[in-house]
Amino acid sequence: MGGQPMFILNEDSQRTEGEDAQTSNIAAGKAISEAVRTTLGPRGMDKMLVSDSGDVVITNDGATILDEMEIEHPAAQMIVEVAETQEEEVGDGTTTASVLAGELLKQAEDLLDDDVHPTTIVEGYHEAAQLAQESIDADVDEETLLSVAESSMTGKGTGDVNAAGLAETVVEAVQHVDTDAGVVRDNITVRTQTGASSSATELVEGVIVDEEPGHENMPRSVDDAAIAVLDNDIDLKESSIDAEYNITEVDQLDQAIEAEETELRGYVDKIEDVGAKVVFATGDIADRAKAFLAKRGILAFESVGDDDAKSIASATGGSRAGSVDDLEADDLGEADEVRVEKFDDDDVAFIEGGAAADAVTVFARGGTDHVTDELERALTDALDVVTAALDQGGVVPGAGAAEIAIAAHIRDEAASIEGRKQLAVEAFADAVDVLPRTLAANTGMDPIDALVDLRSEFDSEGRAGIISEGQTGIIGDPVEYGVLDPAAVKEEAVESATEASTMIVRIDDVISAE
Questions:
Q1: φ/ψ of residue 481, rounded to 5
Q2: Catalytic site residue from 38, 59, 85, 95
Q3: Cα 355 to Cα 333: distance, rounded to the nearest angstrom
């Protein structure tokens, strides 16, 4: 062998091993957790995110913050993925999951310093996570749904309207699309429009699209509307051959014009004959065709986006026809009313009632783009959590009460676990405590004193949380104050935070290419 060195890695590769690798990864994960910790709860702070191009986003939504940040460290990216998973699965609790993952890493770091093996930590964390899931006991009814929606939006940007008012709109929307097979979340859309206060937000039983009538003489409102959705132009057919016509007399020009008008009138006749009163075309509509449609009292829209066309057809029970020639009466959708309203300089089309009532739109209003953007995020989160509460196992007390109960249950069971794994299980319980401690700190309370009082109240009353009141907070029963969270949010947060933290803890070698 001759004692010659053997090079396995590229000479430009960098390698970090053992304790250095663990320390680096844990520090990166904790840094991401700290970035969103102050946004947790109803008194959480906002973050201003400024892009390279100068675009500004002001929010306290954890998913938005982490999505806007440019994360490069692979371990930190794992915490971002925790938030993404939480958002995809239940639509809320991204900050909760991220903060919990960061605290689990912090506790693991202390265990590693005490020479607890990473495998023991991982086994203990997974056992503690199972105990946490066992302690989550949930229930649901309409009153609790309202509380869930309100809790989800409290502390987020809702403009000049309180969360309670918006909660009624959210619950009504979700109940409208609740079927025997579950909530059809895709049938709820949030549509924003600036130019009014947030209190003007309303629920529309139907679909809303940014479209204006193709002709000024078309009706702006049609009742009992039969709706055609066309995936083509309403225009003269183009010749398949490259031909040139030489017109030498006025009569020939008149004949050509008459032929074109006959073709366009034929399209309009076909639309009228099948019974359509409203037309949404993804292509262009010839000016003369628009005029003919207007004379027949038919409301038509052109250059409709593909997504909007799909939504309109689905909501009204219609089918998208490839052309006017292909259009049949069976393709038509139905709505009680199609109307066009003007907001500032924008025309907006409302398709309401009838088959369209299977879909609903939360029409969110706000004075500025920043207000409507944050209101849209708050409403979307609320819709997701109410859906989760209905579809995925009910609700649990919020305000940190569920976490206090989880931590207490884990500590009770930890006594029966032998060996060093017990240390990891107890560390998991300590990590869960970070959530009520953070809520207390963000509310203006002393986090240590609040945690002691929470445990005492839980031991005596069986339930205790941080209730925001005035400029600070108090210890109370969240159920009495209507502060509730979907059980699915807690379950998913525990699961995803545990998976991410244990994955990071097990890494003892980082090899990166230059």
A1: -95, 0
A2: 95
A3: 7
Cα separations in angstroms, 263 against 108, 259, 364: 76, 6, 43
DSSP secondary structure letter of residue 180: T
**What string of DSSP letters covers 23-62?**
HHHHHHHHHHHHHHHTT-STTPPPEEEE-TT--EEEE--H
3-state secondary structure of 236: coil
92, 235, 308, 381: the active-site residue: 381
pTM attached to this predicted model:
0.56
Q: Annotated catalytic residue: which of 38, 39, 59, 61?
A: 61
Residue 23 is among the residues annotated as catalytic for this protein: no
Residue of 94, 201, 361, 443 with catalytic role = 94
Q: Are 85 and 492 in contact (CB under 8 A)?
A: yes
Q: How far is residue 376's CA from residue 428's CA, in Å, rounded to a whole number?
A: 35
Active site residue 346: no
409 Cα distance to chain centroid = 32
Is 381 part of the annotated catalytic residue set?
yes
Closest listed residue to residue 393, CA positions, set 483, 486, 456, 308: 486
Helix (H/G/I), strand (E/B), else coil: 503: helix
Tell me the per-residue pLDDT of 7-45, one tens digit each, with 9 for 90 and over: 454 555 565 666 777 788 888 888 888 888 888 877 778
Is the separation of the CB atoms in 441 and 43 below 8 Å? no
194-206 in b/e form (b: 16+ CB < 10 A) is bebebeebebbbb
Residue listed under structure tokens 């906002």: 46
Task: Give whole-number Cα distances, 62 to 86, 154, 349, 372, 427, in Å.
Answer: 10, 14, 33, 18, 25
* Residue 80 CA: distances (Å) to CA of 63, 85, 144: 8, 9, 30
Question: Is 379:362 a contact under the CB 8 Å cutoff?
Answer: yes
Spatial CA neighbour of 293 closest among 213, 218, 212: 218
Instruction: Read off the tokens for 334.
Output: 């139905």
Residue labelled with tokens 């998991």 = 428
**478, 484 contact by CB (below 8 A):** yes
Q: Is 95 a catalytic residue?
A: yes
* Rounded distance between C-alpha atoms, residue 128 and residue 130, angstroms: 5
Mean pLDDT by 10 residues, the chain (514 residues): 51 62 80 83 80 78 76 79 79 83 90 90 92 78 79 68 82 86 85 82 89 93 94 76 56 64 90 94 92 94 92 89 92 93 88 80 85 86 83 78 92 89 93 91 89 91 85 84 80 88 80 57
pLDDT in tens, 380-398: 888 988 887 777 667 788 8
